[in-house]
C-alpha cells in the first residue's frame, strides 16, 4: 500500500528516483517498443503496393466471406424489378450526376443509370429514405468495373453485395431516422479526443465549434468524400485488411491532431473553414495519418473500441439484419413500421445515455486486467492487456482512507483530491481542529467544491512531480458508485481545467471492479485493522465533542438516503453495463484467439518495454 502522508510521499519519490535510474539503464531496451508500429507501417506499404487486379478478390473476401448468415436474406441486384419511384428520386439522380464528375468514367450515362438503380434498390430493400453520402460510398465499388481499375471486373451483383456489406459493417448510418448511430459516433469521437488531446477538445468547445462538422463526411463515407478516388481505394484496402470497423474514429482523431498548429493559430471565425477542409490528399499523407491513428489506437483502452463496436456499429448490423428478415418473412407494413419505431426509440435512449455519461468510461474487466498480471502458468485472459500494450493504468482510489485500507486493489493508489491543506484551511478558518473541521471538509466534498490547484498539488503528492506531468501516464479514477457525481466533477477539473491527458473513470465504481475481481478468484488486499485508518480523518474528529457526534449521525443518514436513491439509478443502468461487459469479454476472447493463432504461425509478437510507474505491475 502506498501512503499519501509526508513520509509516504518521501518513499514514493525514493522509488521514483530508483525507477528513473533503472530507466536510464534500460534505454536500449526501449527501442523495440517501436517495432509494432513499424510492423503496421510495413503491412500498409505491402497492401498499397499490391496489384490493383487483386483488389476485387481481396474486397470480396473481406466483405462477403465475413457477412455470415445475413447474406441469405439479400436478393441479388439482377433480380430486382426496376422501380425508380422513391419520394426523393430527383435527389438521387442529381447526386449520381455530380458524383466524381471530374472523372470520365463516372460521366458515362450507363454508369450514372446503374448508380441510380443500385442506390434506389438499396433504399427499397432497407425500407429507408435515401440520404446524401450513399453516392460517395458506392462510387469506389462501381469503379472496380472500370478498365483502368485492372483485373477481372466484378458483376453487378457482386458490386451491389459488397456495397451493402460495407455499409452494414463499416458505415451503418444511412438507414436510421435522424442519423442516431452517427450522433452516437460523434459522442464517442469527442470522448476519444478529450482522452488524448483535451487541449484541442477544450479549444474547440470554448470557441463554440463542434468537431462534428468535419467528422460528418468522414464517418458517413469512411473518408471517401473529398478524397481522390485512387487514394480512397488505397485507404479502403488498409481498412478492409485491418478488419477493425471502429478504426475510422481513430483515423479522424489523427487527422484533427495533425492540423493542431493551424487550429490553435486560427481565429474563431476561421475554424469552421479550416475544419471542413481537413483530410488527406497524397499517399505519403495517408501513410503518416494511418501510422498516427494506429498509435492512438494502441494507446486507447480496449473498452472504447468495444463500446463503439457494440453501441454504434452493431446497431446498424442488427437493424439491417432485422429488416432483411422481415422482408424474407413477408412481414406486413404495419408490423414492420412498429419494429422500426421501436428500434428508433431504443437508439434515441442510447444516445441520451451516452451524452449524459460525460466521462471516458472503462469497463471493470479492463481495470482488473491492468491491476492483476497473469498468474504463473496461466495464459493471458481477455481482460489482460495484450503483449503489445506499452502502458498500464494508474488506478487512483478516491474512497475514504478507511475504506481504502480495509479493502483495495493491489496496485491502486489512495488519492484525496481535496487534500489535507483543505481540511487544515477549514480548521484555521473556523478555529476548530476537531469535529467541525472534519464536518466542513465533508460538506465541501458533498458540495463537489474542487479547486484545480489543490487537485494538482494532491496529484503531485500521490504520483510525484515527474509523473504528474508525464504525457504517457494513463489515470483511472475509482470510487464508490454513490459518489459518481463528484467523481465526474473531478474528471471535469482534470480534463477541462488542468487539460490532463488519458483520464478515465471506472464504470460501476469500486463495487463493480470488486465483483469482477472476486468472480475471477483474484486476491483483494484486505486489512483487519480498519480503525487505524478510520481514526485519521473521521472518528478522531467526531469523538472530540458532542456536536461532532451529532453531525456524524446526521451525515450518516444523509449518505444512506443518497446511496438508496443512487442505487435505484445504478440498477437501471446495470443491465446495459453488464451487457457491454459481456460484449467486451467476448471481443477480447476473439482478439486473444487471433493472437494465439499468430503466435502459432511462427510470428511472435515483440512486447514493448514498459516504463514502470507507481502502482503498476510489469
Topology of this structure?
Blueprint: H1 6-25, H2 35-48, H3 55-64, H4 89-98, H5 104-107, H6 109-126, H7 134-143, H8 156-170, H9 180-196, H10 198-206, H11 212-221, H12 229-242, H13 247-258, H14 260-265, H15 271-276, H16 283-298, H17 302-328, H18 333-357, E1 361-362, H19 364-371, E2 393-397, H20 401-406, E3 407-408, E4 413-414, H21 419-430, H22 435-446, H23 452-463, H24 465-468, E5 474-478, H25 484-497, E6 503-506, H26 509-519, E7 525-526, H27 530-542, H28 546-600
Parallel strand pairs: 1-6, 2-4, 2-5, 5-6
Antiparallel strand pairs: 3-7
Helix pairs in contact: 2-16, 3-8, 4-6, 7-8, 9-10, 9-13, 9-17, 9-18, 13-16, 17-18, 17-28, 19-26, 21-22, 22-27
Would you mind describing this structure in some detail?
- With 618 residues, this protein is mostly helical.
- The chain is built from 28 helices and seven strands.
- The strands form two sheets. The protein has a five-stranded parallel beta sheet, sandwiched between helices. Strands 3-7 form a two-stranded antiparallel ribbon.
- Strand 5, helix 25 and strand 6 (503-506) form a beta-alpha-beta unit.
- Helix 2 packs antiparallel against helix 16, helix 7 packs across helix 8 (156-170) and helix 9 (180-196) crosses helix 13 (247-258).
- The chain is elongated and about 75 Å long.
- The two termini are 17 Å apart.
Amino acid at each position: 500500500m502506498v501512503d499519501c502522508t509526508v513520509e509516504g510521499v518521501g518513499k514514493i519519490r525514493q522509488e521514483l528516483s530508483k525507477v528513473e535510474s533503472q530507466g536510464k539503464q534500460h534505454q536500449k531496451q526501449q527501442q523495440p517498443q517501436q517495432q509494432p508500429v513499424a510492423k503496421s507501417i510495413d503491412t500498409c506499404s505491402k497492401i498499397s503496393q499490391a496489384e490493383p487486379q487483386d483488389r476485387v478478390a481481396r474486397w470480396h473476401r473481406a466483405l462477403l466471406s465475413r457477412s455470415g448468415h445475413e447474406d441469405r436474406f439479400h436478393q441479388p441486384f439482377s433480380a430486382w424489378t426496376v422501380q425508380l419511384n422513391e419520394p426523393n428520386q430527383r435527389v438521387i439522380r442529381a447526386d449520381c450526376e455530380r458524383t466524381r464528375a471530374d472523372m470520365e468514367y463516372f460521366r458515362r450515362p450507363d454508369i450514372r443509370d446503374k448508380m441510380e438503380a443500385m442506390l434506389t434498390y438499396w433504399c427499397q430493400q432497407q425500407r429507408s429514405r435515401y440520404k446524401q453520402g450513399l453516392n460517395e460510398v458506392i462510387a469506389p465499388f462501381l469503379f472496380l468495373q472500370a478498365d483502368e481499375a485492372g483485373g477481372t471486373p466484378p458483376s453487378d451483383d457482386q458490386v451491389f453485395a459488397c456495397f451493402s456489406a460495407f455499409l452494414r459493417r463499416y458505415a451503418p448510418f444511412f438507414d436510421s431516422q435522424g442519423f442516431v448511430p452517427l450522433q452516437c459516433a460523434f459522442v464517442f469521437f469527442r470522448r476519444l479526443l478529450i482522452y488524448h488531446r483535451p487541449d484541442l477538445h477544450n479549444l474547440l468547445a470554448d470557441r463554440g465549434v463542434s468537431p462534428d462538422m468535419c467528422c460528418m463526411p468522414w464517418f458517413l463515407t469512411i473518408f471517401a468524400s473529398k478524397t481522390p478516388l485512387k487514394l480512397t481505394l488505397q485507404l479502403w484496402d488498409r481498412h478492409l485488411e485491418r478488419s477493425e470497423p471502429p478504426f475510422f474514429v481513430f483515423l479522424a482523431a489523427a487527422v484533427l491532431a495533425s492540423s493542431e498548429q493551424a487550429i490553435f493559430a486560427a481565429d474563431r471565425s476561421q475554424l469552421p473553414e479550416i475544419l471542413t477542409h481537413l483530410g488527406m490528399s497524397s499517399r505519403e499523407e495517408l501513410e503518416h495519418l494511418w501510422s498516427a491513428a494506429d498509435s492512438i489506437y494502441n494507446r486507447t483502452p480496449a473498452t472504447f473500441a468495444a463500446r463503439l463496436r457494440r453501441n454504434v456499429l452493431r446497431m446498424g448490423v442488427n437493424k439491417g439484419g432485422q429488416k432483411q428478415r422481415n422482408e424474407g418473412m413477408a412481414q406486413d407494413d404495419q408490423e414492420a413500421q412498429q419494429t422500426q419505431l421501436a428500434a428508433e426509440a431504443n437508439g434515441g435512449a442510447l444516445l441520451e445515455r451516452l451524452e449524459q455519461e460525460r466521462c471516458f468510461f472503462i469497463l471493470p474487466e479492463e481495470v482488473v486486467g491492468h491491476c492483476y498480471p497473469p498468474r504463473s502458468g496461466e495464459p493471458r485472459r481477455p481482460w489482460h492487456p495484450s503483449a503489445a500494450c506499452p502502458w498500464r493504468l494508474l488506478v487512483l482510489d478516491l474512497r475514504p482512507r478507511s475504506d481504502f485500507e480495509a479493502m483495495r486493489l493491489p496496485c491502486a493508489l489512495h488519492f484525496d483530491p481535496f487534500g489535507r491543506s483543505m481540511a487544515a484551511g477549514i480548521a484555521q478558518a473556523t478555529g476548530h481542529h476537531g469535529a467541525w473541521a472534519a464536518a466542513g471538509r465533508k460538506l465541501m466534498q458533498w458540495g463537489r467544491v474542487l479547486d484545480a490547484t489543490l487537485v494538482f498539488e494532491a496529484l503531485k503528492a500521490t504520483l510525484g512531480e515527474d509523473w504528474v506531468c508525464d504525457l504517457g501516464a494513463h489515470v483511472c479514477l475509482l470510487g464508490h458508485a454513490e459518489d459518481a457525481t463528484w467523481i465526474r466533477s473531478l474528471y471535469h477539473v482534470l480534463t477541462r481545467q488542468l487539460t490532463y491527458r488519458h483520464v478515465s473513470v471506472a464504470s460501476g465504481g469500486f463495487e463493480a471492479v470488486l465483483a469482477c475481481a472476486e468472480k475471477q478468484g483474484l486476491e483483494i488486499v484486505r486489512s483487519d485493522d480498519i480503525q487505524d485508518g478510520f481514526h485519521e480523518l473521521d472518528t478522531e474528529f467526531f469523538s472530540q465533542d458532542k456536536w461532532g457526534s451529532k453531525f456524524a449521525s446526521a451525515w450518516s443518514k444523509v449518505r444512506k438516503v443518497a446511496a438508496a436513491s443512487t442505487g435505484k439509478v445504478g440498477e437501471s443502468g446495470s443491465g446495459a453495463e453488464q451487457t457491454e461487459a459481456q460484449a467486451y469479454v467476448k471481443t477480447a476472447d476473439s482478439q486473444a484467439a487471433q493472437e494465439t493463432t499468430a503466435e502459432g504461425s511462427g510470428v511472435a509478437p515483440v512486447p514493448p518495454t514498459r516504463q514502470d510507474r507507481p502502482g503498476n505491475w510489469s
